[in-house]
Model the fold of this input.
Amino acid sequence: MATTASISSPDSTGEPAELGVTGPLVDGTWLDKTSLGAVDHINPATARVNGSVLLSGPPEVDDAVAAAKAAHPEWRALSPDKRRRILQRIEELMLARVPELGRLMTLELGAPIMMSSALAHLCAGWFGYYAGWADKIEGATIPPSPIMAPGLDYTVPEPYGVVGAILTWNGPIMSVGMKIAPALAAGNCVVVKSPDLAPFTVARFAEIALEAGLPPGVLHILPGGPEAGEHLVRHPDVDMISFTGGIPTAQKILDSARHTLKPVLLELGGKTASVVFPDADLDAAVAETVRSCFNLTGQGCNLTTRLLVHRDVYERVVESAAQAAAGFTVGDPFEQATALGPVVGAAARDRILAVIDKAAGSSRLVLGGHAVAADTLPPQNRDGFYIEPTVLADVDPDSEVARHEVFGPVLSIIPFDTEDQAVQLANSTPYGLGAVLYSRDVTRVQRLVPQLQAGTVHVNGASGQPPGAPFGGYKHSGHGREGGKEGLYEFLQTKNVFIRA
Done:
């Protein structure tokens, strides 16, 4: 039986050393063999094998979709208050198991334990939030038209049926909350394609959901790669796709989805800018920007990876940013003091270092820029995929490092002189996920917020992404929203009903 239940005994650090085996969950059963067989899972913090993943292929997708389709009528017909209670129970069980979920995430991603635990806690909050919506999905009554026959005209929000959810590897527990919770609250069944790089925390969540009383056919988990994802998107019995990931994969998904014309929600990349004016609280602006940039070792879509600074305070901010980044503790992700863990793998490490090396030729390398020296790491982490926190100043706004996601611990700092130039720089990338303004001038904020091409704009600090806030992007950052009422209605379609008097 492939589950996440068999985590090995603690090692010398007191933490579990291995993850065991995980694989597909189809109709309430964990499969012990699959069409594509097993692959090793590598712990990014140690470069050692710490688990095994049974990969899903088209046969497993077919079985999961068939079971979800069969289960949907009963799940949809379940009274909303019963769906609410199941989602509330999922939240309760997740909160009780935050330490376990955090450890799993740290083992599979190398994320610092403090961050892993915080993300697990946030995920539980999404289930509590959408539990509250499960019995509050309402339509509207349409006023009669004076030139039409009299009668009653009203709308009914209805679930799509079977939703395919494709999760990203860099914190899939957040995608669990943002996608699965609203889809279930809306009355859909869900087939999840979990990332082969990080499938264990998602599998543990599925065990919790079943324990909470979720009917077995309502949720299915398929760890796998592109084969599983493409087959899920093309499947004629999958009614909607929700995807988080990169632009190239999104383009392939849209191409595959055209065969069945199914709707696709896309939450893609970002190149969020912090825009700092001289009247801002500079210490707070620097501290929050640097902390965000290096969250999850820079492996996040909405992290503030660009710092745009007015020239009057530019050098002061550059120096402060370098000092803040230099103060980050790099090391064993199970240590509470560790702020920066490894990147996801050797290929990612080499790619990021190549981007830094290229950028250093036209920028000022203020801090970092190299792989972390092995002898500065704890013995168990010396083969891990660690990169120094890196700060680049005087970055060319048209360069690769300024315009595209690095997905590593790299901060690019760029000067500006005027408000118009600040807006132009903030909007100069293909992305439009987020932006942050730092200024005490309320009239300036009111002028600039409408000009920023971003799905979320924070002023003088970020919100931490509460479940009630919609999240999504403009331009190449995708379309559709996750979170809040908007995120719920992404998983509903509206039926209009007219009854003639």
